[in-house]
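INFO batch 0412 | record 1 of 1 | parsing
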Amino acid sequence: MRYFFHYPMPKAAQPETVPSGDTARETKRDGVFHLACALLLELFIDVMVRLTGRRIRKQDAPWLHCYLGKSGVIGTGVYQHIAAEEHLQLRNSPHAGLIPDFNALRGPSFDPDAIHPRVRHFYEHAAKYQMEVWSEVYFVGRFFLWLLVEFLSRRMDQLNFPISSLEVAKGMASEVIQMVEPESGQLLYTGWLRRLKSSGRVIYAGIYSVARVPAEDNPCVKVTFPCNGSANVYLRPVAHSDGSFGLDSSGSGFGKSGFYRLVESGNDHWRVRNFRSLHELFHVYVDEEDVLRVDHKISFVGLTILRLHYKVTPAADRGSFSGEIRQLVVSERSV
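INFO prediction complete | emitting tokens
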């Protein structure tokens, strides 16, 4: 069954139109066998989390709090649904960032001032940037990734990782969507929607925030991916000696950075499974040609499954932005 959300989105916050004909045609081709496989895989994951996950009382673990998706389509409508459910306004600011204040990550072993100014600027003003992306799927993970994408990701239109490098050949659409409290104007959530321009499929419909994780010294970047329940990734910030920035989810146990799968377990509890064998690693840096780049690696049981490389540049339609970047470059060279 598919779920469509009709909460009206302000015109400024409407996701830009991307072709979706391929997705529609594939949906029509999906037969009974395909649907049965998809439902069985979804059921298997749900049962595994419920049987092997910890039962956590919600009020005891505020760091795990997140929006839980329903079975069916997630797609671009997830932000409208959150806004309707929590009585929030959607805002699409041309200056919006994933982390409004990079200093929020400051901690005993992480100094935001050690990070390159261009990297900080990207995180604080991600809406001003566009991205080109290249992908590489490793042989050992190709079947696992195909199984996930073919039977789960396509159906819910979420986490549509590119199996072929041709899928990203036409680029990626990137939008930052803010969810604010109407009366106070307080920013509660930041959504980052990324889609393949070739098909309109959603690679990531994520919700970004900064969270204090119990067993981590420093605040972490928290990314929530609504699905049937939620997948939360907690990324530990790393300052490299060359001014580049790292995000690492390779925590060693529950309550540390890592990948957490959540499902509802009654009104007051979640079932939470920490997958210690699934890791993500980001390296954000400015190369020798003054280009901002990101290396992104996903690994499972120690084996690299997928690598993504992003070239991050000022968005073409941000008129005054090129001057802002020039000012940053001048500041860098004068230090």
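INFO post-check: The first strand starts at residue 54 and ends at 57.
INFO record closed
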